[in-house]
Design a protein that fits this description.
Layout lengths: L4 E2 L19 H11 L6 H10 L14 H10 L6 E7 L5 E7 L8 E10 L2 E5 L3 E3 L14 E4 L2 H12 L10 E4 L9 H12 L11 E5 L3 H10 L4 E5 L5 H7 L3 H4 L1 H15 L3 E7 L7 H11 L4 E7 L13 H13 L3 E4 L13 H5 L5 H11 L15
Parallel strand pairs: 5-8, 8-9, 9-10, 10-11, 11-12, 12-13
Antiparallel strand pairs: 1-2, 2-3, 3-4, 4-5, 6-7
Helix pairs in contact: 4-5, 6-9, 10-11
The structure holds S-adenosyl-L-homocysteine.
The site of S-adenosyl-L-homocysteine has 19 residues, from strand 9 and strand 11.
């Protein structure tokens, strides 16, 4: 297996200010092609195929388009607007990109993370939906500074394309999890069109069954998602079985409450037929007690649900601890004895700070240029410095 390393990737390409082609809806793309560029409508599909299937990273590569069209597209649009600030490769094959997107309106440039997780035949991307996060879960790195802004459709798609580009030509992304930075249900207006492209045949062709939207639990938005009629998988970050405990861990809970979340989850299950997933980050001494396990079993027993137990991935500066293997096993046993289906999520990319929001914090203080220069000097594929985080802190 590869050593954890810091690899430069397209270092130096500055973000461009031209609008992204990926930010246009299908109708807008067709209108521009027919009305502005005087081209037939089918050019849109040609372009889409180049981007999503042939992994073109600029319009010049789209050789079956007329030269003049390629030039006009390149003059008026960009494909990618972000800049890869850091690319890390974990010993276990997990890869992580830190991307900086340019300023939008009153918001300055914003950094987000996306992760490629390799597991047997699966190639999963963990996608960010916002710069930062407004939910404030007490153990999570993403929300420590609140939310800056929501990502745009093209910025969400760009993550998928840049991660796809890390795969060899005979591999493709098989799964998407909206589990990176941000709350996807607080940005459905941009997340849904991006997932529409990701799940379409001309796009990435990933079945909605293999696309999971993870949420802190916002009942109205769960209903909105349901109304769209696409059968995505829903994962709810529960983290506690009672309101008293959840209020301490998930600040949004005191205005919502577990009962309303479970009702929305049940409606989602009833209408989509999709088995629900509940995520539960185990925080040593906080929510990993036998009492919590009993209460959780009570809440989930009888529901067709999968419980994903996630041992806490430590975040620098936060007081929480990962429970011992014995504590995790004991917690799990209580639930399994009561018939709950439990999975314990394998930790991936520990050596590259792959839990959401972590990398961004570690490099927050470092300017792109000097980092890029340092990485470039180290040479592609070389281990720049000590594999873990020495160069970043
Ligand atoms: N806002 C959404 C999606 C982003 S977080 C949500 O709350 O679901 C994705 C998952 O990672 C959530 O279950 C979250 O609780 C978990 N997570 C965040 N920080 C973590 C950490 N330090 N260790 C383990 N899991 C973490």
């Amino acid at each position: 297996m590869q050593q954890a390393s810091l690899v430069p990737l397209t270092v130096g390409a500055p973000p461009v200010s031209r609008p992204s082609w990926l930010g246009l809806s299908q109708a807008e793309q067709e209108r521009w092609l027919t009305e502005t560029a005087g081209q037939p409508k089918f050019r849109r599909k040609q372009i889409e195929k180049w981007i999503f299937q042939q992994r073109a990273s600029d319009f010049g590569q789209m050789t079956d388009l007329p030269q003049a069209l390629r030039e006009r597209l390149a003059a008026e649009f960009s494909l990618f607007t972000g800049q890869v600030v850091k690319h890390q490769v974990s010993r276990d094959g997990t890869e992580k990109l830190l991307i900086e997107y340019p300023a939008v309106g009153r918001h300055g440039p914003g950094r987000i993370e996306c992760v490629l997780i390799r597991e047997k035949l699966r190639r999963t991307i963990c996608v960010s939906s916002q710069v930062g996060c407004g939910m404030g879960c007490v153990f999570c790195a993403s929300g420590l500074d609140g939310v800056d802004r929501s990502l745009q459709v093209n910025e969400i798609l760009e993550q998928m394309l840049r991660i796809t580009a890390l795969l060899p030509p005979d591999e493709r992304l098989s799964h998407i999890v909206m589990m990176g930075m941000g709350e996807p249900l607080a940005n459905l207006g941009q997340v849904l069109p991006a997932l529409e492209v990701a799940s379409s045949d001309l796009g990435l062709g990933i079945s909605p069954r293999r696309i999971t939207i993870s949420t802190v639990g916002l009942p109205k938005s769960i209903d909105r998602l349901l109304a769209v009629g696409k059968r995505y998988q829903l994962a709810i970050s529960l983290h506690a079985p009672t309101d008293a405990l959840r209020n301490q861990i998930v600040p949004t809970n005191d205005k919502v409450g577990i009962a309303a979340i479970m009702e929305a989850a049940d409606r989602f299950k009833a209408e989509t037929g999709r088995r629900l997933t509940f995520e539960y980050v185990l925080l040593g001494g906080v929510n990993d007690t036998l009492e919590a396990a009993e209460d959780l079993a009570e809440l989930l027993a009888g529901r067709d649900a999968l419980l994903n137990l996630i041992p806490y991935n430590p975040v620098a500066g936060l007081p929480y601890v990962t429970p011992s293997g014995t504590a995790v096993a004991r917690f799990r046993q209580v639930l399994e004895d009561r018939g709950v289906v439990v999975k314990c999520r394998q930790r991936k990319g520990d050596d590259i700070d792959a839990a959401c929001g972590q990398l961004r914090r570690v490099v927050a203080a470092a300017p792109i240029d000097s980092e890029g220069a340092a990485l470039a000097a180290a040479g592609p594929g070389s281990v720049a410095v000590d594999p873990d985080r020495a160069p970043l802190s």
